[in-house]
Amino acid sequence: MNVNKRVTVQELAETLRNIAYSDNQKHNLCWSLSVIHPKTNDGDVGYSGGVFHNHHFKGHKDSNFSFSYSESRGIYQFHLWREHDEVRLDCVGKDGKISLEHLVKIAIDEYGIEELYSN
Question: Does residue 119 belong to any structural domain of this protein?
Fold first, then answer.
């Protein structure tokens, strides 16, 4: 897991959008990526984001994930929730750090996406 590879805000936003659109409206997935604090003295901007179900469908597991992000730290404080229980994953470091590639793999596994939507 290469959590040290720099991920840009643009790459992260496009990935989240592609995850949400890849379900072809089967699961009504939504995504978010919001600024949680403006640029600090070190030039870093903090974000929070995630992918979640817009509606719960009977017989389908309710799975959501959330995280924090900054260009200097990457994706950190990653949390995966199924129903109302947090799930621990081996690919997530003790500090919650995760690579973009692992985030995509988790989304594919959780939401049954066969391939990501692309332009």
Answer: no
